[in-house]
Design brief:
There is one protein chain. The protein is about 55% helix and about 10% strand. With about 300 residues, it is of the alpha/beta class. It folds into two domains: about 240 residues, P-loop containing nucleotide triphosphate hydrolases (Rossmann fold, 3-Layer(aba) Sandwich); about 55 residues. Helix 11 packs across helix 13.
């Protein structure tokens, strides 16, 4: 049997240091990085999504950043097509594809071999759902697809409606074990994890740093270029709360508090998603011994 191409996945919650670790690994194993972040695909959304800078890339090629217009919805199917094309190109160059990010749905789309049929908008269903509260929408989704309900942003009615639409058309998101046989690649998954209190602290400091660097100005500029407040609400987290602040709906202090709390809730949802997969090797990126052990596992895997 022909052996499957090997890829490395570096995953974990927001603010755990995935990008730095991926660059460090790529330097050692001739890797190229494919981002797995559902918002970093959009052009002009840099500080708000914590996008890696050219300097931080340290000359390591990065892919699937800035590939979509934020005015248009970029789907998991779009991501899968582009990522699989990049994986082929990287392997052809004799390098190692490293998928790095925190969007579990995107990562699963690549490693599980899952096929995502396009689900067209259901206008009639949307008209019924739009009248319901976020809480009601969440209850409906939970009945239809418990897996998706565990990880979705419960404060985002647009995403809740779309998830219900997909669940009604396709059924539930398959469990990883059910789709394993479809895998195209041999995969080594490395998960970065930090103690909750430390992660909370890092999330808060990172928010303040990005505000200092001009995150509010970034959102203002996107609005001036025609990105609607409604669309920013859909894009969630930083774009939701900063746009509310810019419209005078929140004070700056409340905006920072809400953003901090919701980012932490998002980090908890990420943890729930990633912990389903028992094959992931977890490491604390601040522990040198754990890093050494994982580096050895990566090199053994690539032999």
């Amino acid at each position: 049997m022909k052996s499957k191409p090997k890829i490395i996945v570096i995953l974990g919650q927001t603010s755990t240091g995935k990008s730095d670790f991926a660059v460090q690994m790529a330097k050692e194993i001739s890797g190229e990085i494919i981002s797995a972040d559902s918002r970093q695909v959009y052009k002009g959304m840099d500080l708000g999504t914590g996008k890696i800078t050219k300097k931080e890339m340290r000359c390591v090629p990065h892919h699937l950043l800035d590939v979509a217009n934020p005015k248009k919805v970029f789907t998991v199917s779009d991501y899968k097509k582009l990522a699989e094309k990049k994986i082929k190109e990287i392997i052809k160059r004799g390098n190692v594809p490293i998928i790095c990010g925190g969007t579990g749905f995107y990562i699963d789309a690549i490693i599980s071999g899952q096929v995502f049929p396009e689900v067209p908008p259901n206008k009639k269903l949307r008209e019924q759902l739009i009248k319901k509260s976020k809480e009601e929408l969440y209850k409906i989704l939970k009945k239809l697809d418990k897996n998706r309900a565990e990880t979705i942003d419960q404060n985002n009615p647009v995403r809740l409606i779309r998830a219900i639409e997909i669940a009604q058309a396709l059924g539930t998101v398959p469990k990883l074990a059910d789709v394993g046989r479809l895998q195209k690649y041999e995969v080594l998954k490395i998960g970065l994890t930090l103690p909750d209190e430390l992660l909370k602290e890092r999330i808060y400091k990172r928010i303040l740093l990005r505000i200092k660097k001009g995150m509010i100005k970034e959102v203002e500029n996107l609005y001036k270029k025609g990105l609607s407040w409604k669309r920013m609400e859909e894009l969630g987290l930083e774009y939701r709360y900063i746009s509310q602040y810019l419209q005078g709906k929140l004070t700056k202090e409340t905006m920072i508090d809400k953003l901090n709390i919701e980012t932490w809730h998002y980090a908890k949802r990420q943890k729930t998603w990633f912990k389903r997969d028992k094959e992931t090797i977890w490491l604390n990126p601040l522990n040198k011994n754990e890093i050494k052990s994982v580096e050895k596992k990566i090199k053994d895997f690539l032999k």
